[in-house]
Amino acid sequence: MKGFTLIEILAAAGILAVIAILIHGSFNISASIWQKRQQYMEQEQDARISMAILRQKISCAYRSPWHKKIGFDGSQHEIKFNTATSDGISQLRFYLKDDCLWLEETSVGMKTPSSYKLCAGVTRFDIFYGRTLSDNWSQKEQKKLPPLVKVWLELTHVDIHEMVIQVRTGKDYE
Description:
By secondary structure, this protein is of the alpha+beta class. The protein is built from one helix and nine strands; from the N terminus they run H-E-E-E-E-E-E-E-E-E.
């Protein structure tokens, strides 16, 4: 009767075990790479959506004689202004807190603002103001509406370049 010897079976089992370990390791590496890429894509998408919201809201900044409480206040990591919405005039505040970019909105008649987390993993959120593209951009507080606002958003895994926003639809009354 012909068959396999014990040594042949042990050798085959050893080779099979090595192949199984290699396959398992390659699956783990592939899953890790896929997970990191997924996190990168989600963070990049959140950053792009956040920048689009910033662009839309800042471009509609509004100041009138009836709503003088806030014109366009900002510091390096925060910006506050009024904007026209379908519900009337809302006060918006974009700020950096706990490595996240937040939007806080207070509509007319609301006592408690609504807060929305726009993007996580933010390492830098800077606001600059200027009159022209060739200006020396500053981070000074602005009581009037600046014609141009430059926003810089930097994230842990994603580098979003600066964005210059024209405050085009708002009006600034004295």
